[in-house]
Amino acid sequence: MLLHSELGGTRYERAKCLWKLTVDGKIKYAGNKALKIYGSLQCKSGRRMKMTNRVFFADQEEARNAGYRPCGHCMKKDYQQWKLLQR
Fold this sequence. Notes:
This protein has four helices and five strands, in the order βαββαβαβα. By secondary structure, it is α+β, with helices and mostly antiparallel strands.
C-alpha cells in the first residue's frame, strides 16, 4: 500500500511518480483510507477524494488483505460478492 501524500513533496513530483508507477504496472487500484474502500484508478468517486485519504494498491488481493472493500460504483460485481459474504 502506497500513500499518495508520500509520493513526493510537490504536486508535480507526486503526479510524475504516480504516472511512472501506473505505466510500470506497479499500481492498479486506488483506495480511500478513511472509508476503507478501493476501486479502479478511473473511478469518478475515487477522483473526488482528498489526497491525504488516497492510497494505492498493486492488486485486489493487497487491498482486501489491508481490510478494504470494493467500490460499489466502478466494481459492481466485486462489491455484490463482498456484500453477500458480509451476511
